[in-house]
Amino acid sequence: MNLTGFELAEVVLPLREPFVTAAGARRERRVLLLRADGEEGVQGWGECVAGEDPGYSYETTDTAWLILTEHVLPGLVGREVMDPREIHQALDPVRGHPMAKAAAEMALWDLQARELGVPLWELLGGSGEPVPAGVVVGLLPNVDALLRTVERHISSGYARVKLKVDRASEDVVRVRAVRERFPELPLMVDCGASYTLADLPRLRDLDALGLTMIEQPLGHEDLIDHAALQSELDTAVCLDESIRSEGDVRLALQIGACRVINVKPGRVGGLGAARAIHDLCRDRGVPVWCGGMLETGIGRAHNISLATLPGFTLPGDLSESRRYWERDIIDPEIVLERGRVGLPAGTGICVEPDVERISRLAVRSQAFGRSARFIGGS
Length: 378
Ligand code: MG
Fold this sequence. Notes:
Distance between the termini: 31 Å
CATH class of the largest domain: Alpha Beta
Number of strands: 16
CATH architecture of the largest domain: Alpha-Beta Barrel
Bound molecules: magnesium ion
Oligomer: single chain
């Protein structure tokens, strides 16, 4: 791969509707987008999924900006040839900060695929077929609003519904209401690490509701209590926040902490690590699915490319662009068709960033190596 430089930009994209989770409400998304420049105008794009606040992990938009601008990107430019599978070696001196690293790693995967003239899904070993789309429903003010929202998503064609729940809300009452209204619906909950083992009676009530899985019920770094919990529940426990590496997956499976893994490339440091987790789980017969982090179309296209690998046997948090955005920053936008989302024919992530719109939304940008700073921002 011929890497000549990068441009990193922060854009502020308004959400179509506020998204409420155990960590709070979001009305807009501050997103870092990264363009990797190759020879002859070839470009690859990555996105950093870190949130505005440290409510999901310690990384935030601002820590990722610092790590990328001070430690990651200066160390990558000047390396004329780099395979994205080897980039983790170049990033070893930077401990932690997987979301910042993943933004660079994913941009290089896109760049390499475009230089080779192949789609990213092919480079990763996927099928490129449209994948079943799942939708996430945030915390809503009451049961009626929840039922109306779920009904709307089902009639749009989504293949499964995930409800965000929180031990401070009427979790069991609400989930039971959805289950009673839609008895056949593939339904799961995401607890966002908000429960403890002392909540076992409530978790047993959720266990009785025929859910496909219960995601991250306990502490965001915990494995051992999850193993105790999984042994008490019939429903599969799925881990999200607790899985930060392939090593975490090995440990979690070894001690029986879960039966399903939510794979987010940003959380584990990029597509290479995500694929290694996929391979490990596939060898062990453990299903995986692709989680979401309120990505723009750039991150979403990366996720869909990954989710076409054969071990992604469960619908992911892969919804269409308009689920979150009035208007996405890619062309064409991701659309839902017969319950699936797919990518058009093309190379790399198979969609083109709308650079004019990105430039209008940018609030800051910085260039590295021989790249020009053209996204703009103050
Ligand atoms: Mg989650």
